[in-house]
Design a protein that fits this description.
2,3-Dihydroxybiphenyl 1,2-Dioxygenase, domain 1; alpha+beta; 5 helices; 37% strand
């Protein structure tokens, strides 16, 4: 049973080593607002809702070649808003890791101070997405950054952060083995497989979106999960439209013998590579 086409992502929760450093980065370089903060955690976003939650562990460290976060992707609502993000990154002299035109989207890649991967992107209209024989064919072509910056009508107001319609567009995670991860996200979660990439990555979604989730084995086939004291992914949120859809997913999970915990805001479990997923309804 396919997941409901109106399914979307909620927020992503990361472990960081230094909260003050991370908050400064996400406010200054990305233009996020701090929605709330307590002794060890904080929530940030653009509009009313969180895109990102952070929890501090001063002993946390980077551990390469594990499953977990590849990047989380911040979706801006338009090309001019992507241009504002690019201008802000340049103005704050934030190191960038790359740019790409994926046919379906235009993207900027970078990392936070702990090395957590970030993508900032805008979608092209679906009518412009590249299909070959009915199959989506995302690409990785050079990005025309000059054309993006030309969307701006002069320097933006530095006091204005991310547009309130900015959301968490997709997640991309490392997995230890592609096939078990594909089967889990299709048969238990209910995502649709949209595209394979070189036998090492796959892209899945709800409602025909190019991808709400990317999975890859680029950290190595058989990569172990990160240790408890690693920076990086704690979980990401898959948001269903209502309780009825959550109940349908729970039934699929029980039939598949997927172990999950019931929580006040939904159910929590881990994929076959131990990436955490919180599934909620009607937030």
């Amino acid at each position: 049973m396919a997941i409901h086409p109106e399914t979307k992502l909620g927020h992503v929760h990361l472990t960081v080593a230094n909260m003050a450093r991370s908050l400064e980065f996400y406010r200054q370089s990305l233009g996020m607002q701090v929605h709330w903060q307590n002794n060890e955690s904080a929530g940030l976003g653009a509009g009313r809702r969180d895109i990102l939650r952070l929890t501090e562990n001063p002993q946390a460290r980077r551990v390469p070649r594990t499953t977990g976060l590849y990047h989380f992707a911040v979706l801006t609502p338009s090309r001019p808003e992507l241009a504002r993000s690019l201008w802000r990154l340049a103005k704050t002299q934030t190191p960038l890791q790359g740019f790409a035109d994926h046919g379906v989207s235009e993207a900027i890649y970078l990392a936070d101070p702990d090395g957590n991967g970030i993508e900032i992107y805008r979608d092209r209209p679906r009518a412009e997405w590249p299909f070959v024989n009915g199959q989506l064919q995302m690409v990785t072509d050079p990005l025309d950054t000059d054309a993006i910056l030309a969307e701006l009508d002069g320097p933006p107001d530095e006091s204005v952060g991310l547009h309130p319609d900015t959301v968490l567009g997709h997640m991309h995670v490392h997995v230890s083995s592609l096939l078990p991860a594909e089967e889990f996200y299709q048969n238990v979660i209910g995502f649709e497989l949209m595209q394979h990439f070189g036998g090492q990555a796959a892209f899945l979604s709800a409602g025909g979106y190019h991808h709400h989730l990317g999975i890859n084995t680029w950290a190595g086939v058989g990569a172990p999960p990160p240790p408890a004291d690693a920076v990086g992914l704690r979980y990401f949120v898959v948001e269903l439209p209502d309780e009825a859809e959550l109940n349908r997913l729970v039934e699929r999970a029980r039939r598949a013998n997927w172990p999950f915990e019931e929580q006040a805001d939904g159910i929590f479990g881990r994929d076959p590579s131990q990436n955490g997923i919180l599934i909620t309804a009607g937030q």
